């Protein structure tokens, strides 16, 4: 694939990532509101449709422009976002997208089941990054410790079912798009 095509697709996914932050459902959880957005969907599809370096570029630029102050995150933007316990989920989009891209290139999936298994790896990394940051940032940023069960409740339990559905749907869309992008 030509570099101009890759950069065009990267820019398209960057725009989709920004737009998908505004398609959200806010969940009232203890301490901080958690958002279910279409960003997980976009990061999985991005990973399946771009090589690893370009998917990392796409999500990395998204994170950088959000930290620079543009309101591209679900709750705005700015460097102060680093001080939110939920920032780890934004970093999780990067790991999710890169994992989906990496395993798509290595395994060359053909069935829906293979796509979904790769998507689950990306989803696992998204949750891992988000919850590790969430749990360990509380004592530092909020000067309070929260029990692990509360961290897992806020970061996993309240959103796992919708995120599994998003993952499944993203894998179906990605499999269908593979015919068009090769």
Automatic annotation (TrEMBL):
Sorted alphabetically, the keyword list is:
Cell membrane, Membrane, Transmembrane, Transmembrane helix, Transport
State the membrane topology.
Answer: Multi-pass membrane protein
Chief subcellular site? membrane
Q: Name the PANTHER family for this protein.
A: BIOTIN TRANSPORTER BIOY
Which Pfam families does the entry link to? BioY (PF02632)
Give the family this protein belongs to, as stated in its UniProt record: Belongs to the BioY family.
UniProt protein name: Biotin transporter
The record's subcellular locations are:
Cell membrane
**Membrane-spanning regions, if any?**
7-25, 86-103, 115-136, 148-171
Q: Name one GO cellular component term.
A: plasma membrane
Provide a Gene Ontology MF annotation, just one: biotin transmembrane transporter activity
């Amino acid at each position: 694939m030509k570099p101009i095509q890759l950069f065009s697709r990267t820019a398209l996914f960057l725009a989709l990532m920004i737009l998908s932050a505004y398609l959200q459902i806010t969940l009232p959880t203890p301490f901080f509101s958690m958002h279910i957005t279409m960003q997980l969907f976009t990061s999985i599809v991005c990973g399946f449709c771009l090589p690893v370096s370009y998917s990392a570029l796409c999500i990395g630029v998204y994170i950088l422009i959000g930290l620079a102050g543009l309101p591209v995150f679900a709750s705005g933007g700015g460097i102060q976002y680093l001080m939110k316990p939920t920032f780890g989920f934004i970093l999780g989009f990067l790991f999710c997208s890169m994992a989906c891209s990496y395993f798509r290139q290595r395994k060359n999936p053909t069935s829906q089941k293979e796509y979904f298994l790769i998507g689950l790896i990306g989803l696992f990394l998204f949750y891992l990054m988000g919850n590790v940051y969430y749990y360990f940032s509380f004592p530092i940023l909020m000067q309070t410790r929260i029990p692990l069960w509360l961290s897992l409740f806020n970061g996993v339990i309240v959103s796992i079912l919708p995120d599994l559905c998003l993952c499944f749907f993203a894998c179906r869309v990605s499999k269908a798009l593979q015919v068009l992008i090769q």
